[in-house]
Amino acid sequence: MIEKALKGSPRYFGALMVFLAIMGIGGGFYLVQLNQGLMITGLSRDVSWGFYIAQFTYMVGVAASAVMLVLPYYFHHYKAYSKMIIMGEFLAIAAVIMCLGFIVIDIGQPQRMLNVLINSTPGSVLFWDMVVLNGYLILNAVIGWTSLMAYWKRVSPPTWVKPLVYTSIIWAFSIHTVTAFLYAGLPGRHYWLTAILAARFLSSAFCSGPSILLLLMLLAKKLTKFDPGNEAIKSLSTTITYAMCVNVFFFLLEVFTAFYSNMPGHMDPILFLFSGFEGHTYMTPFMWTAAALGLTSLFLLIPPKWRENRDILVPALIMLVIGTWIDKGMGLIAAGFTPNPFEKVTEYLPTGPELMIALMIYAVGGFVLTILWKIALEVRAEVEGEPGK
Amino acid sequence: MQSSRRDFLKLAGVSALGLSAGTLGFLGEGAQAADALPNATNFAKPITAKRWAMVIDTAKFDDALIAKVIDSCHTAHNVPTIPGKQEIKWIWTEEFHGTFTSERPVHLADAQEHRKYLLLCNHCENPPCVRVCPTKATFKNKEGLVIMDYHRCIGCRYCMAGCPYGARSFNFQDPEKFVKNMNLLYPHRTRGVVEKCTFCVEKLAQGLMPNCVQASGGAMVFGDLQDPNSPVRKILKEKFAIRRNPSAGTEPGVFYIL
Ligand code: SF4
Ligand code: SF4
Fold first, then answer.
1. Does residue A70 contact residue A89 with C-beta atoms inside 8 Å?
2. Rounded to 5 degrees, what are φ and ψ at A387?
3. CA nearest A107: which of A161, A166, A50?
4. Are the beta carbons of B156 and A346 separated by less than 8 Å?
5. Is the minimum CB–CB distance between A336 and chain B shorter than 8 Å?
6. Helix/strand/coil percentages in chain B, nearest 5
7. What is the pLDDT of residues B223-242, one digit of tens each?
8. DSSP H helical segments within A76-124, as ranges?
9. Which residues 94-153 of chain B have a CB within 8 Å of chain A?
10. pTM of the predicted model as reported, rounded to 2 decimal places
11. Does ligand 1 lie within 6 Å of residue B66's CB atom?
């Protein structure tokens, strides 16, 4: 089956070359970082996590969101998702690989990475995050690959896959919950110190992840003969809409708690994001853009008529993805560290090299995803191309 | 030059195990410092405690004393002087509002308003930095010191996110060229690891008080918080002292007399 990745149209190889080129350029910057240290980033003593960890957090959400297909398909035998399920699982694989990549580029001593295993510390959430991420990667790789293999051989998947599937459903929730716990249990970081952080993470993941999947699938539909089916698209966009409503609702809960209680520690980070703190307003344009995009996407997605219209659906999904990305991929980390323990603001914006290194990881994800989807689509075309079988 | 220096530091450990300092003469550069090398007798009488703690009498500090105290720590531990927001500091100052953020005072008394407060790691009793560290590179010893094994640290900076006091620094770059006079008796750090104040665990092991305490001329008091006869307990009995951000629940080991 793997040989299907080796043959393909110039467009397929062209895409792979583009990803490789980006990896090469980003890799060059990463060598500089290895050589000089994280000084090439915009990070500081006060804002010690930044763009890399934020992208990691966003991608964990994308990985976890595969469950929005897996759950209805395996639990409720919702057949409409049969064509997309494998695509969702493969997207999860690519996303987890990116997550691990973002962690590796973030640590100061990557060659000591295995210390996390050698000195495994069950009290540290980071240890558990590593466990659940790698576990999820293995689960999805095994489930995805065996199901596709069975489909290719036109047999039903082996029975041992079923328990793995059920495990993966719970596991998907756990990866984003554990990732939220990385932040949520820290004293003195008011923006993160909230019991609904894990719930917020999941709600934002369950709208943004499926949006990315749906957009990619509509792209695949344009480029190949693949068609996820109208009903599937309709159901998934409904899921996205609900999840986004919950996401916005959860954020408003935070706003209420912070401002009705009137406690400075809780209000300050939100003020910093949306109106600036002590004159530092560099985050506000981003956050208002995110708010506007998020609300507009909801406005477009809620009426079923509009949602079913591809010309409205696609831009609405793009807005949703950008809005949630700004919220999680920029705002979450910055507001966690701002104001700092001295009630001051240290500005953080990623530097050029930092962005290029992050882009490298995105290119790795794109590369992996392109190959996996190519295999899946070819297998499907081959099997379906033989009527009567 | 560099490698001989490093070898020397390795051997410094050997000498501590009992080699007489004089036998290190063959090391060339090292020989100059060898006289000052601590040897086994220095480590024969460590001072110990159940729970080390510090009291800072803030009124006793002026700019000169503050500079002296900071210098005594930073030169002894090869703490680099890096300008900008990627700086490294083990002990430093803040004004009242930045130090006692949870107090949020209005109409602060003049004396307190214009004072500078020395900040350092609080060697918390429930240290979040230890809780979150995935490699045990940051750990609490049985005397309540929160210290680090720089060789284990992977530079994930989780401990920096965890510390509610901003007490930790990260080596964003190689610190060596920012250390003016390298103290050959103390290792400097590599890039990519976190560091912070250690309450001079290496001095206590030799029966000596921490550098800052020695330099402070009595303005900083150090001792066993669990021993009612210790100097810290005596002074806490007499004077009202507060700790930074107590609501974080970490039980800091540094007390401030205002
Ligand atoms: S002050 Fe910060 S670094 Fe020091 S022990 Fe407490 S939590 Fe850890
Ligand atoms: S940066 Fe080092 S000391 Fe801090 S949590 Fe990570 S491994 Fe532990």
1. yes
2. -65, 150
3. A50
4. no
5. yes
6. 35, 15, 50
7. 999 999 999 999 999 999 99
8. 85-106, 115-118
9. 94, 97-99, 101, 104, 128, 131-137, 152-153
10. 0.91
11. no
